[in-house]
Amino acid sequence: MTNTVLPADDNGVTEVARGRGIAAWRQIADEIEADIRSERLRAGMQLPTESQLATRFAVNRHTVRRSLAELASRGLVRATQGRGTFVEDRPMPYPIGTRTRFSENVSRAGREAGGKVLEAYETVADPGVAKALAIALGAPVMRLDTVRMADGSPISLGNAYFPMPRFAGLVAAYRDTGTVTQALAACGVSDYRRLETRISARLAGAEEAQKLDLAPGRLLLTVESINVDTDDAPIQFTRAAFAADRTELVVES
C-alpha cells in the first residue's frame, strides 16, 4: 500500500485533501500507518485520543473512529476499553515442541507473561475430549477457560480439559500460581511433555475478538494439543486460539 503523507500547517493541523477521490478517514489511517512504519509511533505506544486526532486532522470524531477501525483491521493498532488505542507489537515468536510452556515462551521473548481465569467448572467429556484424554465418553473433566497475555496484551484464549478426580484441585492452584505448570505440580505432576499438536486457522468471532482486543474478523491461529505425564498418561487437552497479529507459531523439531 502507498501511504498518503499529509502536510501540516503552522498550527500543527494536518491538512486532509478534499475532492481528490480519497476519503478523509482513509487519508488519516494512511498517515498514522506511515508514522507506525517509520517508527515515529513505536510498538506499545499509545495513540492520541480521538479528540486530539480530530483536532490534528480538523475532522469530526466519527471520521477519526473510522480511521482507527481501519488501522485495527490492518493489525496495526489495538483498542483497549478504558485505556485507549495502542500500536501493536510485532508478532511474538511462540515455540511449540515437546516442552511447550506458555510462561517460558513469553519470558524467552523478553516479555512478561500473565493470564486470568474466565471460567472454570466440572463438566463431562465430549467425543473429542474423551479421545484426546483416553477416557470414557461422558467421564468427568475439569474445564479451565483462560485468556493469556504478554506485557498485558491478550494473545490467546484457551479451553483446557483435565481428567477428574485427579485434577480436582487444579483450578485453585492455577488461581494461586497463575501458571498451568505450577498448578499441575500442585496436583502431583512433576513434569510433562507435549504428545501432539494440531494447528489450523480461522477468523475470529465477535466474542473472541472482544476478549482479545481484536477487530472482528481478524485471523486466529488455532491449536489443539495433548500433554502427557512421565508415564505417558494424558493429563491435559487444550483448544487454544492465538491472535495471528501478535504471535508467530514456531514448530520445533
Walk me through this protein's architecture:
- Helix 2 (50-57) crosses helix 3 (61-73) and helix 6 (170-177) packs across helix 7 (180-186).
- A 6-stranded antiparallel sheet has the order 4-5-6-9-8-7. Strands 1-2 form a two-stranded antiparallel sheet.
- It has helices at 24-37, 50-57, 61-73, 102-108, 127-133, 170-177, 180-186, 206-211, and strands spanning 77-80, 84-87, 92-96, 113-124, 140-150, 153-163, 192-203, 219-229, 234-243, 247-251.
- The protein has 253 residues and is an alpha+beta fold.
- It comes from Kaistia nematophila.
The CATH superfamily of the largest domain is identified as: Chorismate lyase-like
Order of neighbouring strands in the sheet with most strands: 4-5-6-9-8-7
Averaged pLDDT: 90
Any idea how many domains? 2
- Series of H and E elements: HHHEEEHEHEEHHEHEEE
Number of helices: 8
Morphology call: elongated
**Largest sheet: number of strands, sense, barrel closure:** 6 strands, antiparallel
CATH architecture of the largest domain: 3-Layer(aba) Sandwich
Alpha-beta content class: alpha+beta
Domain HTH gntR-type: 22-90
Keywords: DNA-binding, Transcription, Transcription regulation
GO molecular function: DNA binding; DNA-binding transcription factor activity
Protein name: Phosphonate metabolism transcriptional regulator PhnF
